[in-house]
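One such given next:

>
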Amino acid sequence: MRHVKKENLPEKICLVCKRPFSWRKKWEKNWEEVKYCSDQCRKNKK
Protein backbone atom coordinates (compact mmCIF):
# COMPACT_ATOMS: atom_id res chain seq x y z
CA MET A 1 0.00 0.00 0.00
CA ARG A 2 2.78 2.42 -0.80
CA HIS A 3 2.09 5.83 -2.29
CA VAL A 4 -1.67 5.51 -2.39
CA LYS A 5 -3.74 8.65 -2.07
CA LYS A 6 -6.05 8.83 0.94
CA GLU A 7 -9.18 8.86 -1.20
CA ASN A 8 -8.06 5.58 -2.81
CA LEU A 9 -7.52 3.62 0.41
CA PRO A 10 -9.80 0.66 1.06
CA GLU A 11 -12.73 1.25 3.38
CA LYS A 12 -14.93 -0.86 5.62
CA ILE A 13 -18.05 -0.20 7.67
CA CYS A 14 -17.74 -0.58 11.44
CA LEU A 15 -20.06 -3.28 12.79
CA VAL A 16 -20.94 -1.23 15.88
CA CYS A 17 -21.27 2.42 14.84
CA LYS A 18 -21.97 1.73 11.13
CA ARG A 19 -19.53 4.44 10.04
CA PRO A 20 -16.97 3.96 7.28
CA PHE A 21 -13.32 3.77 8.24
CA SER A 22 -10.21 3.63 6.08
CA TRP A 23 -7.21 1.37 5.98
CA ARG A 24 -4.41 2.20 8.41
CA LYS A 25 -0.76 1.22 8.38
CA LYS A 26 -1.09 -0.61 11.72
CA TRP A 27 -3.74 -2.88 10.11
CA GLU A 28 -1.55 -3.73 7.13
CA LYS A 29 -1.01 -7.38 8.09
CA ASN A 30 -4.53 -8.17 9.28
CA TRP A 31 -6.86 -5.87 7.30
CA GLU A 32 -9.12 -8.82 6.46
CA GLU A 33 -9.82 -9.44 10.17
CA VAL A 34 -10.45 -5.79 11.13
CA LYS A 35 -14.13 -5.27 11.97
CA TYR A 36 -14.22 -2.24 14.25
CA CYS A 37 -13.07 1.33 13.67
CA SER A 38 -11.75 1.91 17.19
CA ASP A 39 -11.04 0.31 20.54
CA GLN A 40 -14.19 1.91 21.91
CA CYS A 41 -16.35 0.19 19.28
CA ARG A 42 -14.54 -3.10 19.82
CA LYS A 43 -15.30 -2.91 23.56
CA ASN A 44 -18.96 -2.03 22.92
CA LYS A 45 -19.63 -4.79 20.40
CA LYS A 46 -22.60 -6.20 22.31
Notes: The chain has one domain: 6-43. Residues 3 and 9 are 10 Å apart (CA to CA). The mean pLDDT is 92. The first strand starts at residue 11 and ends at 13.
